[in-house]
Amino acid sequence: MSLYSLKAPLAILCGAFCASTSGTAQALAPDGVTPIAVGAIRLLGGGLVLLLWGLISRNIPRPAGWPKLHVVISAAGLAGYQLFFFEACKQIGVAVSTMVAIGGCPIVVGILGWFVLKEKPARNWYAGTILALCGLAVLTLGTGSDVQFSMLGLALAVLGACSYAVFLVAIKPVLQHHDPSQIMTVIFLLGGLSLTPLLCAQPLGWLLTPRGALVAADLATLTTSLSFTLVLYGMKTTSAAVTSTLGLAEPIGAAVLGFMVLNEPCTQQTLLGLFCILAGMVFLIASSPKPSCNGSQSVLN
């Protein structure tokens, strides 16, 4: 397989690993940090970072000719994911919420991509996705966390999966003709501004502490602006469904950071889950077709 054909999936994987630091950053944040504040600061901060970079590099977004409906739907999907997922974590715990929201996303994207983007899933996507989802189930249920059941919490996690899936599917057509960093600048700012009323009701004194400022900087740069820009860069020549499945690499990075930074236990069951997720990623990348000579491809077609 050529290096060129690996650039897109590797960019998505790097973006997923960058996003995986968000859980560690929240765990290391000062007391008083709320999930809603984390979600809103991620979007607003990420948008401001990309806007600053656009000013420096003279790559300012010019959305005049963009499909505005796609942009608005994408921003709404990303903002909705922040609200639904973090509230689900309160209701049924992080482990089950992660398994339902992150694990359910590829399934929803596969269905939406088939009907909306006309990207019919190929056999390799089913095999790689099923293997990765099995690994995610083993990983999250093997953490030793108490499993809580709540119909409301389960519904919120499902809505989180659907919201992120809507973001990925709606943004795909915009990527064909516009710069990923410009797109994410606008979407982050729109999504962040929509969450501002909720952010104003949260305690924000922790932002004035050195640790809080570092956590906010990490959320805005590494876990948001850099992460999503890399994902969208890879998604330009990769289908939405494969992008969402490769995004399951995020729990791998989160687990490794948990072992190394947060001193979380590393069990055989955890390693088995990580191995299955990684095997699913490798299978999808290895079985992906080469891009066409015009640089575009659909990994599912």
UniProtKB/TrEMBL annotation:
Its placement in the membrane is given as: Multi-pass membrane protein
Subcellular localization: Membrane
Specify the superkingdom: Bacteria
Pfam families in the record: EamA
* Regions that span the bilayer: 37-56, 92-117, 124-143, 149-171, 183-206, 212-233, 240-262, 268-286
**Location, primary (coarse class):** membrane
Record InterPro entries: AA-Vitamin_Transporters, EamA_dom, EmrE-like
Q: Where is the EamA domain?
A: 8-140, 152-285
An example GO CC term for this entry is: membrane
Could you list this entry's UniProt keywords, alphabetically sorted. Membrane, Signal, Transmembrane, Transmembrane helix
Please report which protein family the annotation says this sequence is part of: Belongs to the EamA transporter family.
Q: What is this protein called?
A: EamA family transporter
